[in-house]
């Protein structure tokens, strides 16, 4: 029984992570073909196909897609972190209001994802509440194009992923010893200097974790850019969807997914190294 319990985490990891990743890698090295599924595996008569990976590296369309996804994900993670750091610290120090404020942060998870996006569409569209308020105040005469813009896409992504950034900062802030800041104040440090010199460095690991927790899923986001973003925003999620279901080119879609995964491994390794050195 004990051996089975020890093996269980490894089995789940193999089933939920290693097996799907291996399947994607196999498809990335396969050939596009007619039929179901629409690819010929490497162990078929045609062998391994390296052209899919080469295409991802050489075609400007796919390179731009990877670049746009990384830039958008980095902006989303950065904005989430700027909001999550003060929010997490404030909630941790809120006393009897802590549970209520934490519940308010988690409130978006209590509603459907598509319902939240529908609410943003209702707010941002030309006949929506925001444009209606602007016209009622006499600030604009014609509707301001808010929907289907880069700003709307970033707004939706920050709103969707903000709780993932708040929770690690909040958890780390609850473990801070307030006596350290008090000791710094007794030694003559101002509150700002005590925060920057004592509190903030202790939160760096949690902030790095918060950044990665947002960056990784945001890089492959499909639904938010599709519903709120501009048509010219060719993020990886959109391109993979088009290759899978539009062009039925599963090998190229898999190669693009592997390329994004490889790029996301780099910041993970960087943060791990900084964590060890820190």
Instruction: Specify the overall morphology.
Output: globular
Instruction: Please write the string of helix (H) and strand (E) elements.
Output: HEEHHHHHHHHHHH
**Strand residue content:** under 5%
Which blocks of ≥5 consecutive residues have pLDDT under 50? none
Distance between the termini: 40 Å
The order of strands across the largest sheet is 1-2
The portion of residues assigned to helices is over 70%
Give the number of helices.
Answer: 12
- Give the rounded overall mean pLDDT: 88
Task: Identify the quaternary structure here.
Answer: single chain
Domain ABC transmembrane type-1: 66-271
Transmembrane segments: 66-89, 101-123, 152-173, 194-219, 250-271
Subcellular location: Cell membrane
Membrane topology: Multi-pass membrane protein
């Amino acid at each position: 029984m004990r051996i089975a319990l020890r093996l269980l985490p490894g089995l789940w990891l193999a089933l939920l992570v290693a097996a799907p990743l291996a399947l994607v890698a196999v498809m990335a090295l396969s050939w596009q073909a007619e039929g179901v599924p629409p690819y010929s595996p490497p162990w078929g008569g045609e062998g391994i196909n390296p052209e899919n990976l080469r295409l991802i590296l050489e075609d400007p369309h796919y390179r731009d897609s990877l670049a746009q996804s990384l830039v958008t994900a980095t902006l989303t993670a950065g904005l989430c972190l700027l909001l999550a750091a003060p929010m997490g610290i404030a909630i941790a120090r809120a006393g009897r209001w802590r549970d209520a404020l934490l519940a308010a942060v988690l409130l978006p998870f209590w509603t459907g994802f598509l319902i939240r996006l529908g609410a943003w569409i209702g707010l941002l569209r030309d006949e929506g509440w925001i444009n209606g308020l602007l016209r009622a105040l006499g600030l604009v005469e014609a509707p301001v194009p808010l929907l289907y813009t880069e700003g709307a896409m970033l707004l939706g992504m920050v709103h969707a992923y903000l709780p993932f950034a708040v929770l690690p900062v909040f958890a780390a802030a609850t473990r801070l010893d307030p006596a350290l800041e008090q000791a710094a104040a007794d030694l003559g440090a101002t509150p700002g200097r005590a925060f920057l010199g004592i509190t903030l460095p202790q939160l760096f690991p949690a902030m790095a974790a918060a950044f990665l927790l947002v960056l990784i899923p945001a890089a492959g986001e499909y639904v938010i850019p599709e519903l709120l973003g501009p048509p010219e925003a060719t993020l990886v999620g959109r391109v993979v969807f088009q290759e899978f279901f539009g062009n039925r080119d599963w090998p190229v879609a898999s190669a693009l997914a592997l390329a994004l995964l490889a790029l996301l491994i780099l910041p993970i390794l960087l943060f791990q190294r900084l964590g060890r050195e820190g």
